[in-house]
Write a structure and sequence with these properties.
367 residues, alpha+beta, Rossmann fold, Dna Ligase, domain 1, 3 domains, homodimer, D-amino Acid Aminotransferase, Chain A, domain 1, 17 strands
Chain lengths: 367, 367
Amino acid sequence: MRVGILGGGQLARMLALAGYPLGLDFTVLEPAQDACAGPLTQHLRAEYTDAEALQALAGEADCITYEFENVPAESVTRLDRQVHVYPPPHALAAARDRFLEKTLFNQLEIETAPFADVQDLDSLRAAVEQVGLPAVLKTRTLGYDGKGQAVIREEGELEKAWESIGAVPAILEGFVEFEREVSLVSVRSREGEVAFYPLARNHHSEGILRRSLSLDGDPAQQLAEQYAQRMLERLDYVGVLAIEFFQIGHHLLANEMAPRVHNSGHWTIEGAVTSQFENHLRAILGLPLGDTSSTGHAAMVNLIGELPDTRELLRLPGAHLHLYGKAPRAGRKIGHVTLVEEDRRILQVKLQRLEELVHGRGGESRS
Amino acid sequence: MRVGILGGGQLARMLALAGYPLGLDFTVLEPAQDACAGPLTQHLRAEYTDAEALQALAGEADCITYEFENVPAESVTRLDRQVHVYPPPHALAAARDRFLEKTLFNQLEIETAPFADVQDLDSLRAAVEQVGLPAVLKTRTLGYDGKGQAVIREEGELEKAWESIGAVPAILEGFVEFEREVSLVSVRSREGEVAFYPLARNHHSEGILRRSLSLDGDPAQQLAEQYAQRMLERLDYVGVLAIEFFQIGHHLLANEMAPRVHNSGHWTIEGAVTSQFENHLRAILGLPLGDTSSTGHAAMVNLIGELPDTRELLRLPGAHLHLYGKAPRAGRKIGHVTLVEEDRRILQVKLQRLEELVHGRGGESRS
């Protein structure tokens, strides 16, 4: 059985690592020569819109998935005519456009921050009237890791913000003074089986995820699962779906969803009985889902921009290093490290040491 | 950093799966086109004695290891002149010849069954005088999974046994009425750091390992570690070393050692904080060793000859499937399944169910 993946980055790499033990083989379609999934898969090197490459991929793969939501819609549609593509293309369409995504959340009675559609400067002014300030202007599509976003604090900044995101269709979102950021990784199989991982508490900085902590038995788990269940059913979803929430009191405001394995679920490789990567593959192949229970309290810290002293990281007892084989570059995710401990206090002590090693000092974004 | 591996079977495959997260790349030298490590490594397809292939491997690998002890000694010697080869060639030489191996055990005051060198029919007769009957005649080199062995119960069987193993240099070993078979997986790094995994209790049938159970805090652990420590130091060893013992009362009789990752250590992938595969790589690259503590009670069951219904296996909560991508064939190891549980009684219940699924019935080789 061969799985085709659109994109050959670290998510494809970790899907392949999880999939070989299931007896699967992998082909990635990815234009970059140094694709980090390349060394451990068949690498089809072409643009995502290349007709011959798509034909080749559809011909050799039994099932196709993708590792990023900005994959061209027409490529997915073309593939879907010939071979199973999961998550389903209509879920991708809903998730890749921030306005459609938030509209769908609200239709399903899932709370969000106030938001409004922005097509030009005039509609941006109307949106500010509706949503209020401060607010965040975000491109409807193609943004990630804080790119394609501009914070607007006062009316005089409208034009500058509009230009800074490239004057493209956008969404204005009310600024949320949240208490916590949490995310739920859920999975639904071709057979309709559904499972949820424990919530993760996430810490972002400069728009990039820095750290996730697994939350076993958290009071917000039930509401998050209800919301995810609605979305999974509405979309007749297949695969892993991650939803990020802002938490204010007992309220969860859906921020965005990702129709794929997600950075805030990387802790599941060691911290859950079955990883999100294995369960995504099980789901899209119609296999029974694996146990999503946690194996302890887990913390995941991203390695961003530059590589710390890996020898020191490996010296930390129980630290699981995951390098992606990518060249270091400012703001680039090049790996992550996971800790899993039975005792949450021991986890906190080790996490502090880990973050000192990663950031070169203690406490950059600790809570 | 690129690791070269002589052999491209399941051990190479699992080394690669453990090594990519450390940021490593892999080249395997393996003559078989359908080498199961092939799809996830650079596959150098040539005989192990091919001079150009060895030259190419030495040229591109920063460090070389091997996945089986019957790799030609001259190839290892040739590689060792150009690049680090671990475990060291003299350890390979000691482990690949049953007579040298057992002699070394005894030199280190590690108990073994009685044994004698056999060069021809005359020396076989002398060996029977010395060792007694019943006894097992084994080729000095190249045997594995019960191949190259013949049990001798009475004098009249000598000639037949001698012919059946191919009339090659051999060793006669006294038959041991053991109570348990256990094995210790140990690891020593280039820096001299040493670590031991919990003992595994092994169950063989027809000379092939069927099942291993991890033994946390077993009374025999200390003696096994003492024996392994002596061997690691004597050989100035680097990498994973597995030693199989027969246990009779408080005595451990060393049966054989493997200078490589070992089937009885496969449970460490999920059942220990750091797997034997990752620790072998850390050891040969001079990195700090990872924690060898167990994460629970583990059981590993080999999939031999034919593939059971994998959908049913995956339905068993907490079952970790490991397929090697090999075509089923009688007597061939094509995968394994691991269970890890906090409660040993729950493990036993699940193991029984697992073995029913694997063997098509309950209890084939249960204890």
